[in-house]
Amino acid sequence: MYQPIIAKAKSKKLALIAVSNKLLKQAFAIAKSGMPYDENYGSRLF
After folding, report:
1. Up-side HSE of residue 17: CA atoms within 13 Å toward CB?
2. pLDDT attached to residue 40
3. Distance CA 4, CA 19 (A)
4. DSSP 45
5. CA–CA distance from 25 to each of 7, 8, 9 (Å)?
6. In whole angstroms, what is the distance from residue 17 CA to residue 15 CA?
7. Taking the CB of residue 41, how many other CB atoms lie within 10 A of it?
């Protein structure tokens, strides 16, 4: 998640914030749904 943001010439601080925000949202969704974490889960939006 981190490397593509850095590759787009964004600052490292911005990349860290973006990655931490994404991980926090994923953790909250897992806790809210009550389902176990599945590394191979694919988004239904795409």
Report:
1. 5
2. 77
3. 11
4. T
5. 23, 22, 24
6. 5
7. 10
Q: Could you list the mean pLDDT of each consecutive 10-residue stretch along the chain, which spans 46 residues?
A: 78 88 88 81 62
pTM value?
A: 0.62
- The tokens describing 13, both together, are 């601080």
| 5's tokens | 């943001």
Q: Could you give the count of Cα atoms lying within 13 Å of 35 in the half-sphere of its Cβ? A: 8
Q: CA-CA distance, 9 to 33, in Å (whole number)?
A: 35
Contact 14, 5 (CB under 8 A): yes
